Amino acid sequence: MPKFFYIARDKTGNKVTGVEEAANQDDTITRLQAKNLIVISVIPEAGEGGRVSITPDRVMKQRVTLKHNRITGTELTLFCRQLATLLGAGVTILKSLDIITQQVASKRLYQVIKDLEKSMEAGLSFHEAIGKHPKVFSELWINLVESGEASGNLAMVLSRLAGYLERDAAFKKKIVSALIYPAILMCAGLSALLFMTIRIIPTFAEIFKGFNIQLPFLTQVLLNISFFIRHFGFVMIIVLAVGFWFLRKYISTKTGKKNFQSLLLKLPIFGEFFRTLCVERFTSEMSTLVESGVPILYSMEIAERSVNNLVLAEVIHKIKEDVREGKPLGQSLEKSNFFDPMVVQMINIGEEIGELSNMFKRLNTFYQEYLENFFTRFTSMFEPIMLIFMGGIIGIMVIGLFLPIFEISQIGGK
Questions:
Q1: Strand 15-21 and strand 38-44: pairing?
Q2: Domain coverage including residue 222
Q3: Whole-angstrom distance, CA of residue 190 vs CA of residue 196
Q4: What's the CA gap between 370 and 376, in Å, rounded?
């Protein structure tokens, strides 16, 4: 009877390796699961020297052409969903990764998955393997996978992670779609103003030179602005580009990023929007973590490392320390002065009735709807405001250009 080398985890999360005699790989998996082991990989063992070899039937040909090098959010979400589905169907994780490599279109993702296979065949767990690729897999990925491996519910945890990634991608898509029209309208308006400033106003300036009249103040201002843009516009672009570069360099530092994010949160009107965006991100991650069975303190720690806002990260850190000291989560949230009273009340209720993950999920749904409504109102208001603004500016230009013509016509009439 052939022998199979296996790598597995027991219920406490400890790694277990060994050799099992069985008719085939599926029979090996069944025997290991009967021993309450979580199977990571099963590999046929060579006859000589007891060394592991990978048989040809484990190597599958690539059926999808690798089209690009980047890894998109959609591809990473699909990878998570496919892996969750295959593991849920009882397929081993290594076999699942082999199957997925046949379907990826990203050359980089293909290489990453192949590296995951090699790492796990060398004895690493799945969370240790993905931890070698921090630019691809976030802290949320790594910690959720680790909790899934330890609890023996990796398929379920990956399914919830895939759901989180899908909801997050759909939400971002709605936000981008809502901003496309205002961006197009603004670009068109600014292009029209620039065309009038560079082409139309200089034409009128040449006409006015032929008349010996004192130009009105508004007309002179328009001519000066046109002259400045035409002769110093390139210098302005260079200055703005250099300023933007230095701003990006400053924001890339921890202090600069924190100061910039703090400034965004203090902006009138939009400051509330950015704060709500932070709360939405926090509730989304917490609902996924708590629902996946991650302890509340560990969830707070993961959320602190995962959120992309240093101000919120500091708030979460203080809340985590209060909870570590035994204080209720709702009370710690209220003490932070960052969260709305509704968040505090719902978390208090969730703690009392043991439905904390459900409360986080409801809060996340509420804030997503709030942000979507905000963008809907913003785009509906932006169009008339932009049209009025552009109409006002163009009207001022037209008046400024025609005032001298009126004076010339009056002089000619005399």
A1: unpaired
A2: 174-414
A3: 10
A4: 10
